[in-house]
Amino acid sequence: MAIEDGVVLAECLSSACPLDNVPGLLKIYETLRMDRVHIITECARETTHIWHLPNGPEQEARDANLQHVAETATPDGKPGIRVNPNSWSDPSFQPWLFGFDAVTDAKAQLEKEFSGKVQTKRGFR
Fold first, then answer.
1. In principle, which of 27, 32, 58, 99 could form an S-S bond with 95, CB 3.0–4.6 Å?
2. Do 107 and 12 meet the contact criterion of CB atoms below 8 Å apart?
3. Strands 123-124 and 119-120: what pairing?
4. pLDDT one-digit tens code per residue, 67-78
């Protein structure tokens, strides 16, 4: 996420001429990153819980679920009947997580934000 954050921040601040635009661009940066960062952090918290269960019924249920997912996965790697409880290993989550193009997304969002606005010496109008 740190690399994505840096890329998106750079894209946002590349429009910061004049410097009066910086506060507005930082707000746009925050908006662009909020949902994705929230989803990734929640998945990380869930994964921490999943992999650090003490021995017992909850851990055994997790293991049985993981085994079931492994047994019902199709040869092309698509998930079986159940969704993998480990998001990082879930074939439906991985493309969203690892296939994201932060530069393209930031440019598209900034273009949408500034569509029809004219940049002047005092900012966008």
1. 99
2. no
3. antiparallel
4. 877 666 555 555
